[in-house]
Amino acid sequence: MAVKLRLQRHGKKNFAFFHIVVADTRAPRDGRFIEQIGSYNPNTNPATIVLKADRALAWLNVGAQPTLVVRRILSYEGVLLRKHLQGGVAKGALTQEQADQKFEAWKVQRDAKINAKKEGISKAAADAHKAAFEAESKVNQERAEALAKKKAEAEEAARAAAEAAAAEKAAKEAEAAAEQAAAEAPAENPEA
User: Fold this and answer.
1) Which stretches are tagged as biased composition: Low complexity (predicted)?
2) Which domain, by its residues, includes 55?
3) What is the mean pLDDT of the chain?
4) Other CB atoms within 10 Å distance of the CB of residue 187
């Protein structure tokens, strides 16, 4: 029986996640499978992979063929490297301790790369948030300055209007006083 390691689709439209399964090649994509060995969620950044590495390695050793995407996942998780190193141990090119050391060194390097990517993503998100906050603060400051300027212009116009009204009132009072003085002056002078 030809056996494949492949993905089995689950989830909603445009938001799929996958189970990594061991299945007969003639079985439908989302149908019957022999064993589920993990899951793959490409919707997160970086993608979330949960894998039973020992079971995947066991199936590879008995001849199961991974699909292209599953091969890439197995490579990412180090299953293919472990198989390669076990082949070297079987041939006598390496000891088991050397193979384990090489695998652990590779795993540390891979974990460092993943953590760097996560930190880069979180830093980029924080920088974008900070830039958006600064831009919004700048816009708010410009709005406040424009509003203060408009308010100052309105106050200046109101003050000018009040001063004009006061000057006009003073002019009218002066004119009324002059008329009253003129009216009183001829009244006193008719006897002369």
Assistant:
1) 159-168, 177-192
2) 3-92
3) 88
4) 9
